[in-house]
Amino acid sequence: MYSLMLLGALWAQPAGRPATAEEIRARDITVFPNGAGLPAGGGDAVKGAKIYESRCALCHNKRGEGKAGEYPALVGGRGTLATKAPKKTVGSYWPYATTLWDYINRAMPFHQPRMLPPNDVYSVTAYILFLNGIVAETEPMNERTLPAVRMPNRDGFIPDARPDVKARR
């Protein structure tokens, strides 16, 4: 009986329509390693510290050390990737700073994803990079400077050489 009710409910759903090009563009928030897709805006670690304190520290702690078993550390871990206890953080593992911006923009804060405006995302990104010793506290992060940030593990990934994979660095 339950399956008949479910089938009836599905049958009654409207057919819908394909998304328009404008609707697709509005939802296309993809940011690539080279910075393509980053919006205009900017910030620095000084501004980011304040935003981080109010929006991020509850889960990731005051200096990005994380909460064991709950929320990951964002800071530390350099030199641990080749050990028996690697610590994968933004500063030790992530290959591109633009990926950090994209992740914060899409998924953070955890309970309110996509609520931060681009300037706040640039500022929090700068703050996390600063905590990892990658950028200076007052170094501006924006759509031009962020792709130029050289992450410590940028060359730690190997391109997939299989013939059916067309990825290029």
Give the helix proportion (percent range). 25-40%
Q: CATH superfamily membership, which one?
A: Cytochrome c-like domain
% residues in beta strands = under 5%
Low-confidence stretches: none
Number of domains: 1
The overall pLDDT, averaged over residues, is 90
Number of strands: 2
Biggest β-sheet strands, sense, barrel: 2 strands, antiparallel
Q: What Rg, in angstroms, do the CA atoms define? A: 20 Å
Spatial gap, N to C terminus: 55 Å
Secondary-structure element pattern, one letter each: HHEHHHHE
Order the strands across the largest sheet as they lie in space.
1-2
Structural class call reads mainly alpha
- State the CATH architecture: Orthogonal Bundle
Q: Tell me, what's the shape?
A: globular
* Topology-level CATH name: Cytochrome Bc1 Complex, Chain D, domain 2
Protein described:
The structure is a single chain. The chain is mainly α and 169 residues long. The protein has a two-stranded antiparallel ribbon with strand order 1-2. The protein has helices spanning 2-11, 21-27, 45-55, 57-60, 97-107, 118-131, and strands at 42-43, 141-142. The chain has a single domain (31-154), classed as Cytochrome c-like domain (Cytochrome Bc1 Complex, Chain D, domain 2), CATH 1.10.760.10. It is 34% helix and 2% strand. The protein is built from 6 helices and 2 strands; from the N terminus they run H-H-E-H-H-H-H-E.
